[in-house]
Amino acid sequence: MKGKKSNRMIAALMSASMGIAAIPAIAPAAISAETSDASSKVVFSTDFEDGDVSAFTNRGENDTTVLSASDEAAVSGSTSMLASGRSKDWNGPAFRLDDKLKPYTEYYISAKIKGRYYTNATFSFQYTNSDGETKYSNLVQNLSGSDWMSVENVKVSFTDEMTDVFVYFEGGQDDIFIDDFVVTEAAQVEIEQDIPGLKDVFASDFKVGTALTPAALSSKPTMDIVEKHFSGSITAGNEMKPDAVLNQAACQAYFEETGDDTVPQISFSAAKPLLNYCQKNNIPVRVHTLVWHSQTPDWFFKEGYAADGEWVSKEKMLKRMENYIKAYFETLTELYPDIDFYACDVVNEAWTDGGAPRNPGEQGNGGSSNSAWVQVFGDNSFIEPAFTYARKYAPEGCKLYYNDYNEYMDGKLNAIVEMATDLKEKGLIDGIGMQSHLDARQSLDAAFPSVSMYNKALDKYCELGLDIQVTELDATTPENPTEADFKVQADYYKGIWDAIYAHKDNISAVVVWGVTDDGSWRAKQYPLLFDADYKAKPAFYSIVEGREVPTPEVKYGDADCDGN
Ligand code: XIL
Question: Is there a contact between 475 and 493 (Cβ–Cβ < 8 Å)?
Fold first, then answer.
């Protein structure tokens, strides 16, 4: 760092991007140093030796932080930047990205940070979406120690729908020193074009899709993979779930204004960038999900929409449920009349592995397996009205699914089959969503479920005479996987995909839960088809091997319910 010129900025970047604004979208994954290879270039760098701190600001008019060059502490040279006068935890030095850097481009940020007495900081990201809402996320937490702490090659990117995009340091109220702040632009990655597109290989069989996170949207190579392989179907990873859609303040305001506390107020602002993308690219969307115990706020079930209120009665909850589902579909189709919302997970994960309803109770801070639906209804009798209302309000062509994980475990499988048989007789359900969060483990014998167990579950759901969608497919390796583990994963994926393929006449979509391993919700176990360098993994090749990209005339052999 020493001797390097300060504030070196690639001129072209100064002209800046900017655009309209919108939604959650960053790639907050810290990445290993070797990923930023020689082909990446430094676009901003300062060691503060020239005393210039003008590229940094505090965090707005309520932030009392004062920034100056200081020779009280330094990593390289004798000067660093001092952030003094901080009076709140969130006060801190900030660096704006969207007036200096390009959207849809990956950057790595490195810096050194030290507290005056002790370092206890967080490196964070913020932006304003197209609805004018400011969103925050933590990039690196627990920067704690008594000496200088390093932030190393933290990946950030943003879309052109985001404005006022900043990274910043926060935490505690003591003085903070920053040194050696470097922004590197990652080399542009071209994805592999000489491999077949998954969606094309299976074009005459079923839709092939993926789940998108807002972070993926700002990564060009990720979206190139989506376009090539997964543009048959998109599911929002989190942004269309109850906790993302229900707006507590608006619910309470409506209640206060009208005296009616049965008309929940909703917003799709979190999902907007994803839905904008799907609309622009004409990609069908799976709606995930309406009625779920998880990622659903407790206040939705409480008097006054207050987290500490009493539980509402079943009668009131039924009204809330109906009005919620009505508003959900009406708002969606009004905002996005051109998107094909072709499938909806009406109820998610209502049965335990043993085939019983969940325990009643709160979610609390999340992570609880208890269900507030069961709390209010006493049992799983909320399922039928959920499907009844979904049937009433879903747009034409939107098929209705019950969706679950461990869907191959006997107790749960039987409960789902029994429930679905009943709902089918009443004309309320169209299909079963098999989440398919699988574990390849270290050998095909150890894999869970075994391919044959999964195949049997497919048989059973097939016999129901309903459609099947594989809605969240991923298959984990052990942590710190070896090449051998990736080979096992490939063999396992092949077995599972062959089982799916054998039932293709009853399967309308296969959705992989994420694009690249590093963006997965189970990232430590590398469960997806593409790696963090956007390369197809052995698992990808095992699926497409031996198959042709069909032309309209090519038709594969028919399969029956036994997969023969
Ligand atoms: C997961 C998301 O991928 C995570 O980002 C989130 O933290 C938790 O939820 N079953 C489902 C999905 O139906 O909605 C879940 O998605 C994975 C399990």
Answer: yes
Give the pairing of strands 107-115 and 149-156: antiparallel
Residue nearest to atom 12 of ligand 1 (CA): 237
| Residues of the chain falling short of pLDDT 50 | 1-36, 552-559, 563-564
Residues 6 or more apart whose Cβ sits within 8 Å of residue 494? 542, 543, 545
Residues with CB under 6 A from ligand 1: 237-238, 348, 405, 435, 472, 521
What distance in Å separates the CA atoms of residue 152 and residue 140, rounded to the nearest whole number?
Answer: 10
The verdict on whether 334 is a catalytic residue reads no
* Burial per residue of 29-42, b for 16 or more beta-carbon CB atoms within 10 angstroms, e otherwise: bebeeebbeeebee
User: CA 460, CA 410: separation in Å to the nearest integer?
Assistant: 11
Question: pLDDT tens digits for 262-308?
Answer: 999 999 999 999 999 999 999 999 999 999 999 999 999 999 999 99
Ligand 1 atom index nearest CA of 213: 5
Concatenate the DSSP letters of all residues of 319-380 into one string. HHHHHHHHHHHHHHHHH-TTS-EEEEEEEES-B-TTS-BPPB---TTTT---BHHHHHHSSS
Residue 349 falls in the annotated catalytic set: yes
- Contact of 83 with 176, CB cutoff 8 Å: yes
pTM: 0.82
**Which run of H or of E encompasses 180?**
strand 176-185
Q: Return the DSSP state at 246.
A: B
Q: Give the span between the Cα atoms of 454 and 459, in whole angstroms.
A: 9
CA distances from 169 to 49, 100, 196 (A): 20, 19, 44
